[in-house]
Design a protein that fits this description.
With 338 residues, this protein is mainly beta. It has no helices and 28 strands. A five-stranded mixed beta sheet has the order 2-1-28-27-26, with no helix packed on it. A four-stranded antiparallel beta sheet has the order 6-7-8-9, with no helix packed on it.
């Protein structure tokens, strides 16, 4: 099968990052496809993120990319160029594991190793709520589609749900049915009342927020689960794990397909907004694109170091973002249908 060339990458590289893995032609791949990579003209040092990019998230318009870093910061970037729009903001005292936009784009939430979850007003830049309940690092967070609720996960094994307007804790998923080890990721379904979580116990759990009950327990992974995401219609879930695989599930608990990754852990997973493609970011530096229908690989590109997070938007004809462990953020203008 002929694989598509993915287009042009623009990236921002922290000063410590060497251009390892890139030659003068830009990342030649095994099947001799090329993607042109170009280092953007020197942003000032204070505008850089120096730690691993733990999360990427596009705003509802697709024009702004939000990234969070191990260096305690979050940053807003142009989705078109990848360049930071202002100086990264250090709103936590430890690594920011996740930063997510509200569905309407006027708020954002950050989850940090300092055990705090914070909600920010995007227009003023002011913190609206400082949410304190987790006993250990907060690993991920997700707004429900209406934007009324916010879910969070933690190394303390807990899954909490918050009221966005008041900042009040509304519920905890029942411990007896929850994860027995640290919880690493959470995603909200377009169906609004459903979330899924994954953690170090290697199980994916699907929850109903109305009943506060466990709906499904997805069993197939054999090691820690790093990421999870719903498809745009909420019918499928993609997960990534330390067991060297990404796995596609239906909501009935059935395993649809396993994407093997040749002895490299899967750190980031997402669907494109149309649901036509699945994006998988791996520790071997590869970001791989699969057709969600045929389940076949249709393209890939190579980061400078281990990929940590991925995101996608339909804006500008289809853009994929990736953050790696060196602090580099990539923006790929894809020729694939978004």
């Amino acid at each position: 099968m002929r694989k598509a060339s993915l287009g042009e990458i623009t990236l921002e590289v922290a000063p410590k990052s060497a251009e390892q893995g890139f030659d003068e032609r830009g990342n030649p791949l095994a099947d001799k496809r090329k993607i042109q990579a170009q280092k953007q003209g020197g942003p000032k040092k204070e505008h850089m993120q120096f730690g691993a990019i733990h999360s990427c998230c596009f705003d509802p318009s697709g024009q702004v990319l939000l990234t969070s870093s191990h260096d305690t910061s979050y940053a807003l970037r142009s989705s078109e160029t990848g360049q930071v729009l202002n100086e990264p903001i250090r709103g936590h005292s430890a690594a920011v594991h996740a930063a997510r936009f509200h569905p309407e784009g006027h708020l954002m939430a950050t989850a940090s190793a300092d055990k705090l979850l914070k909600i920010w007003n995007m227009e003023s830049g002011r913190m609206m709520h400082r949410l304190i309940a987790h006993a250990e690092a907060v690993t991920d967070t997700a707004f429900t589609p209406t934007g009324c609720l916010l879910a969070s996960t933690s190394l303390d094994h807990s899954i909490l749900v918050w009221d966005v307007e008041s900042g009040r804790e509304l519920m905890r998923m029942p411990p007896g049915f929850g994860h027995e080890l640290p919880v690493r990721c959470v995603a909200a379904s377009p169906q609004n009342h459903v979330i899924c979580t994954g953690g170090d116990d290697a199980f994916v759990r699907v929850w109903d927020l109305r009943s506060k009950q466990l709906i499904r327990k997805l069993i197939s992974h054999t090691r820690n689960i790093n990421s999870c995401a719903f498809s745009a219609d909420g019918s499928c879930i993609i997960t990534g794990s330390e067991d060297f695989s990404a796995r596609l599930w239906d909501l009935n608990g059935g395993l649809v397909h396993t994407f093997e990754s040749d002895s490299s852990s899967v750190k980031g997973t997402c669907f494109t907004p149309s649901g036509r493609h699945i994006i998988v970011g791996r520790s071997d530096r590869h970001v791989v694109v699969y057709n969600a229908g045929s389940l076949q690989e249709v393209g890939r590109w190579v980061c400078q170091s281990a990929c940590q997070s991925v995101a996608a938007t339909t804006q500008y004809g289809g853009v994929v973002a990736c953050g790696d462990s060196s602090g580099t953020t990539y923006v790929l203008r894809s020729v694939l249908a978004p």
